[in-house]
Target: GMP synthase (Glutamine-hydrolysing)
Amino acid sequence: MSTPRESLCLLLVQIRENPKTRDEEWRSFARFCGLAPEQIRILNLFDTPSFGPEVLQGIDGVLVGGSSEASVLEQERYPFVEPAMALLRHCIAVRLPVFCSCFGHQLAVRALDGEVIRDQSGFEMGTVAIQLTEAAASDPLYHDMPQGFMAVSVHRERALTVPKGCTLLAFTEPCTHSFRVDGAPFWTTQFHPEVDRPVLIERLTQFAHHYTDGEDHLREVLDSAQETPLSNDLLRRFVDRVLLDLPQ
Model:
């Protein structure tokens, strides 16, 4: 018998310093997962940079969020990167379901010996059309998603290929956008399924100095942003189809 929805407990591995963004991200993940916020525990890596598999006790699945305040390429500056990668490898080994978003996608690439590069300019920012691979047609999360669905994508680091032992599910011309670890309930997205258009506008306004070249650039990005209901639904699919094993 599967676990009832109201009994699920997920761990959100959070990489946020700003108090407002911490709360918004937590509540956004809960909203799009279809869970109460209280069902999602938080492990904030800035608060707890050293940890082990004990953080998974009593957890049904793991979420890894994004970050505008850290980089997977600066492990000396951010000491939590190494234990976070070890945690993801442990989840794969014990087949604990995982969904990684943005920073989480890059973290998973690095954890599995893949390459992440940094863009100084010309990076994706706003809402983008996501293309699906042939493998997506048989994937539990993507098989009924249309080509070109819109998603929020804001990142200065990217992966050109997926690691060995993984299957590419979605992409844009600049980079990989989603993969699954072969033989494990482990998915990633470079885009943000936990972010919708209103939250994108709020976040980009808050972190404009980090991503935009001034007010005119910011306004151009925000004015072109589209709604992203299909990408936002991926988190519910992860809960329903993977954690609860509900009929698709």
User: Anything to note?
Assistant: The chain has a mean pLDDT of 91. The first strand starts at residue 10 and ends at 14. Residues 5-121+155-195+231-243 form a domain with the Rossmann fold fold (CATH 3.40.50.880). The longest helix spans residues 19-33.
